[in-house]
Design a protein that fits this description.
This protein is of the alpha/beta class.
Length: 300
């Protein structure tokens, strides 16, 4: 009976979930050639091909089966090691995060974390990015995730940030054709609001603030009821909300940087584990499809 080493399975799952050999290598601390060699060893061991050759990481039918089986195997392995290894990781980690990520990847990331490290307690505080970062500077949080304007030069670890297109979000009615565009926004200080206002002003479009709320649920409800348009990073738009790329009525909103902040020298073992799960969640954010000016679905 053959046994599949868990390190080969972990490499395979990480490649799939991060979307690339390079990203997986960065997270696992291995070079890209070493990652490729592990996949060759895995395919040789199980005597089947798991990636479709010549595609962008598309899995074969056997690869899909192996991916789901490998996740279960690794979950059992990690939980067992954590609980029986005699050195369970525990601790409290304070996390600040923008409201939008309540629905994006955070619940899944924390669920996966709790399965592997049940004794790590994460305290989550949601607010707009400006407030989150101000609190982080006052040492309220151990880790924070914030949205910022795209930087001209980026020197952070590639695992700690991603760029995302800001997209218009609206109800099915075409409010963009109104002479005075109604906006649904977070309070002053929100990056979405600042980029909305500056983009409309540059385009010479008149607007009014129709609805302001600090609640993500309030934003979504107001947009769904047709009270106005808003903007969100494309990867965190709830699937049921229609989005649109820039048209003659709607100017381009630009990109935002979604990034993690932490103090490297102050990271506890528990905080490092939380950081690793957040990095995976950030990498796995999928872009939301958007509607073009003719209602056609376009990937962002």
């Amino acid at each position: 009976m053959k046994n599949i080493p868990t390190d080969l399975l972990r490499t395979f799952v990480t490649i799939k979930e991060l979307g690339g050999f390079t990203s997986a290598g960065e997270l696992l601390g291995r070079s890209q050639p070493a990652i490729s060699l592990q996949i060759k060893k895995l395919e040789s061991l199980i005597e089947t091909q798991i990636f479709v050759r010549g595609t962008s990481l598309e899995l074969t039918e056997d690869g899909e089966y192996l991916y789901h089986a490998a996740r279960q195997i690794l979950e059992i392995n990690d939980t067992t090691v954590s609980r029986l290894g005699g050195a369970n990781v525990s601790g409290r980690v304070r996390l600040g995060i923008p409201n939008d990520f309540e629905l994006a990847f955070l619940p899944k990331a924390l669920r996966n974390l709790s399965r592997t490290y049940p004794d790590i307690m994460v305290e989550v505080d949601c607010d707009i990015s400006k407030s989150i970062y101000q609190k982080y500077q006052k040492h309220v949080y151990d880790i924070c995730l914030v949205m910022e304007p795209e930087r001209a030069q980026e020197d952070r670890d590639k695992r700690d940030y991603r760029l995302d297109q800001l997209t218009w979000v609206m109800s099915p009615g075409n409010l963009a054709e109104l002479d005075l565009i109604p906006l649904v926004t977070y309070p002053q200080g929100c990056i979405y609001r600042a980029m909305l206002e500056s983009s409309l002003e540059r385009a010479g479009r008149q607007y009014r603030i129709a609805y302001t709320t600090p609640s993500l649920l309030g934003i979504m409800s107001a947009v769904e009821e047709g009270l106005g348009l808003t903007a969100m990073a494309s990867s965190v738009v709830p699937p049921h909300l229609p989005t649109a790329i820039e048209t003659k009525q709607l100017p381009s909103l630009g990109s935002v940087s979604i990034g993690l902040y932490y103090r490297e020298r102050e990271l506890s073992v528990a905080t490092r584990h939380v950081l690793d799960f957040l990095r995976v969640g950030l990498a796995n954010l999928a872009p939301h499809p958007v509607l073009g000016s003719r209602g056609q679905i376009t990937p962002t």
